């Protein structure tokens, strides 16, 4: 999965650092991510390449510091690609993609909170923890949206879906947690809304940060309970069928929790 970057290690803990010449700088704008793109690989500019005042430390990977740079900038040999294109790159390892997804999550949070939601004044960076401060006393912490991914079993078949818009490959029923719900409540509600089924034996599998949409995904398996006739939500899905283990078509790369959950079911007895 995208976060499985071993033996590399990301240290996401907050530090109030300033960039040095060889710090990595990730710059996002409406046009996408500034990087050097070569075929299916990418490499990132350093602070020496792009400079600038408005930068903030975000994390380090294997001791290398990463910063976000806000506003327009350029560097020799760099171009911009939008995040959809970046996701499609067949990078040799997941590490760069995970760095970009995580940085993008932080970038969107900083961008969305440049002004205080309570009083409208400009916010400033906290120097002790990952937060933004307003002089009115409002303190804004990073926002992470919980969502579930659901592998619904029916004997030797798994419920496979395809979305009506966007991602075209096999997927699983999924959805955001509503205020007031447990994750298990979300599982039951989303399954009922999207495919009209009751489920039982809800068990947690694994989780995954999915920064391009500011999510934290929690994967669950469960079994269909009673009637297995699918009533698909046609507004959201274009395909929802029980698919036998051996017939499950996996996604073209290994970055998503959804793909791992389909693969685990496909390879189990
Ligand atoms: Zn305020």
Structural write-up:
The chain is α+β, with helices and mostly antiparallel strands and 269 residues long. It folds into three domains: 10-112, no CATH class; 114-143, no CATH class; 145-267, Nucleoside Triphosphate Pyrophosphohydrolase (Alpha-Beta Complex), CATH 3.90.79.10. The protein is 19% helix and 33% strand. The protein is built from five helices and 17 strands. The strands form four sheets. Strands 12, 13, 14, 15, 16 and 17 form a six-stranded mixed β-sheet that branches. The protein has a four-stranded mixed β-sheet with strand order 1-6-7-2. The radius of gyration is 21 Å and the shape is globular. Bound molecules: zinc ion (ZN). Zinc ion binds at residues 116, 118-119, 121, 134, 136, 138.
Note poorly predicted spans: none
| Tally of contiguous helical segments | 5
Mean pLDDT: 94
H/E element sequence: EEEEEHEEEHHEEEEEEHEEEH
Q: Count structural domains.
A: 3
Structural class, by secondary structure, is alpha+beta
What's the CATH architecture name of the largest domain?
Alpha-Beta Complex
Associated small molecules: zinc ion
Share of residues in helices: 10-25%
What's the CATH first level of the largest domain? Alpha Beta
Strand content: 25-35%
Straight-line N-to-C gap: 22 Å
The total beta strand count reads 17
* Biggest sheet details: 6 strands, mixed
At CATH level 3, the topology of the largest domain is Nucleoside Triphosphate Pyrophosphohydrolase
Q: Give the C-alpha Rg.
A: 21 Å
The CATH superfamily of the largest domain appears as Nucleoside Triphosphate Pyrophosphohydrolase
Overall 3D form:
globular
């Amino acid at each position: 999965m995208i976060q499985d970057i071993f033996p590399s290690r990301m240290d996401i803990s907050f530090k109030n650092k300033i960039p040095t010449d060889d710090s990595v700088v990730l710059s996002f704008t409406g046009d996408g991510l500034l990087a050097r793109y070569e075929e299916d690989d990418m490499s990132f500019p350093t602070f020496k390449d792009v400079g600038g005042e408005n930068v903030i430390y975000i994390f380090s990977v294997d001791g290398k510091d990463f910063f976000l740079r806000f506003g327009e900038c350029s560097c020799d040999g760099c171009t911009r690609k939008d995040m959809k294109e970046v996701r499609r790159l067949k990078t040799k390892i997941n590490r760069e993609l995970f760095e970009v997804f995580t940085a993008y999550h932080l970038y969107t949070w900083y961008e969305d909170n440049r002004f205080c939601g309570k009083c409208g004044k400009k916010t400033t960076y906290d120097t002790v923890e990952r937060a933004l401060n307003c002089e009115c006393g409002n303190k804004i912490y990073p926002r992470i949206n919980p969502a579930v991914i659901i592998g619904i079993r029916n004997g030797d078949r798994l419920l496979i879906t395809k979305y009506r818009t966007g991602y075209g490959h096999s997927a699983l029923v999924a959805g955001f947690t509503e205020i007031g719900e447990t994750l298990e409540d979300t599982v039951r509600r989303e399954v009922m809304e999207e495919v009209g089924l009751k489920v039982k034996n809800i068990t947690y599998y694994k989780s995954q940060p999915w920064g391009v949409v500011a999510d934290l995904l929690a994967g669950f398996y469960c079994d269909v309970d009673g009637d297995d006739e699918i009533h698909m939500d046609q507004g959201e899905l274009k395909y929802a069928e029980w698919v036998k283990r051996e017939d499950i078509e996996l996604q073209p790369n290994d970055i998503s929790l959804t793909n791992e959950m389909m693969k685990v079911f496909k390879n189990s007895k």
